[in-house]
Specification:
Elements (H helix, E strand, L loop, with lengths): L1 H22 L1 H6 L3 E2 L13 E2 L2 H19 L5 H17 L6 H19 L9 H9 L1 H22 L5 H16 L5 H19 L8 H22 L5 H7 L1 H16 L12 H14 L2 H20 L9 H29 L1
Antiparallel strand pairs: 1-2
Helix pairs in contact: 1-3, 1-9, 3-4, 3-9, 3-10, 4-5, 4-10, 5-7, 6-7, 7-10, 7-12, 8-9, 8-10, 8-14, 11-15, 13-14, 13-15
């Protein structure tokens, strides 16, 4: 019954979001939060689109939290910390902060503050040496957790911009986490984010009426990082490497991009046109559809279907650390094989 009420409230929220979008569309243009830049490397849209998904996402989460407090006996403090991530992303969306190094420093400060308040007690990573340092050196634990959060937050930001790519990908991850946490107090919090993302998806896919923006991507990256770490802590029967596989696309997209740019003497903090989703988009647009909108959402669908197929074998080996490690290495090889073949084809056509 409690979940039915949440579903009804989500339906109500959709219409509130719709009213806001229609009523304040002209105002959004005045505060420079409508994306009209069609020539930047990460731009694949053809009409002005507001970057207000983060605002609606945090609004929907807070709205559902207020009512969920009456139905579920759990704390929702993690959503309080989602607010500063929204603000730093919103400031970035409105071009108030354009220095990537300064933005990174602020993100680090917010994450470290959260780590001190939350007292996340991660002890098992699947690697004995890392476990030893986590248990004995508080500074190492902070740096390790900081790296985990930053990687997923930046991974979320990397793949945002395509209709449904980040949202659908996040929903897949959160639904798996929700299934794993159905009998504990993480489930209501995960459900709130799932419902909020579904509402946004209705405005973003297949044709985007709005984008998540950096504010939305930061919120999603932060919450997914937290839910994965908490799920790993509460499910001792699941290998920690399983969660590395679950986050593989977000994680490896950042790591691979960093290494690729460094080898090409390009700053890792600046965008380029060589990410996997961008290469795939160009191939779909030039060789199959010759239509930016179709190529845009087919890129999202293709990547997420491929992701689900690639991670599905681990559902049968989730409790075996050794097999999960082998499969994680296999995923890296598959990703690189796909990427370099697509790049080779992309270069040949251009």
């Amino acid at each position: 019954m409690n979940y039915i009420i949440l579903l009804f409230l989500s339906f109500l929220l959709y219409w509130i979001n719709y009213f806001f979008f229609k009523k304040f569309h002209k105002f959004l243009d005045k505060i420079d939060i409508i994306d009209k830049n069609f020539v930047k490397p990460q731009s694949f849209h053809t009409s002005p689109t507001p970057r207000i998904g983060g605002f609606l996402l945090i609004f929907n989460i807070v709205f559902l939290c207020i009512f969920a407090k009456f139905f579920f006996n759990t704390n929702y403090y993690v959503f309080i910390f989602a607010v500063p991530f929204f603000f730093i992303g919103f400031i970035d969306d409105t071009k108030v902060i354009e220095n990537p190094k300064f933005r990174l420093i602020i993100l680090i400060s917010i994450i470290v503050t959260f780590l001190f308040f939350s007292n996340l007690n991660l002890e098992n990573t699947g690697f004995s040496l890392i476990n030893y340092f986590l248990s004995n050196y508080i500074l190492f634990k902070i740096i390790f957790l900081l790296f985990c959060f930053l990687t997923i937050i930046n991974g979320s930001n990397f793949i945002d911009g395509f209709n449904g790519l980040l949202t659908i990908h996040s929903l897949i991850i959160l639904m798996i986490l929700g299934f794993m946490n159905y009998d504990n107090d993480l489930f209501p919090k995960i459900l709130i984010v799932i419902l909020s993302l579904i509402i946004f998806l209705l405005f973003n896919f297949p044709k985007a009426k709005m984008f998540l923006g950096d504010s939305g991507a930061y919120i999603i990256g932060f919450l997914i990082s937290y839910f994965v770490i908490e799920t790993s802590i509460q499910n001792n029967n699941v290998s920690p490497i399983f969660f590395c596989i679950l986050l593989f696309y977000l994680f490896f997209e950042v790591l691979f991009s960093f290494c690729r740019k460094k080898l090409s003497n390009i700053s890792p903090l600046h965008p380029d046109k060589k990410h996997l989703h961008m290469v795939l988009f160009r191939i779909l647009n030039t060789k199959i559809f010759n239509n930016k909108l179709k190529s845009n959402y087919f890129t999202s669908v293709s990547i997420n279907i491929t992701y689900m197929v690639m991670i599905s074998p681990t559902f049968f080996i989730y409790d075996n650390g050794f097999l999960c490690k082998l499969y994680f290495i296999t995923l890296i090889c598959i990703y690189l094989l796909i990427y370099f073949n697509l790049r080779k084809y992309d270069k040949k056509e251009n």
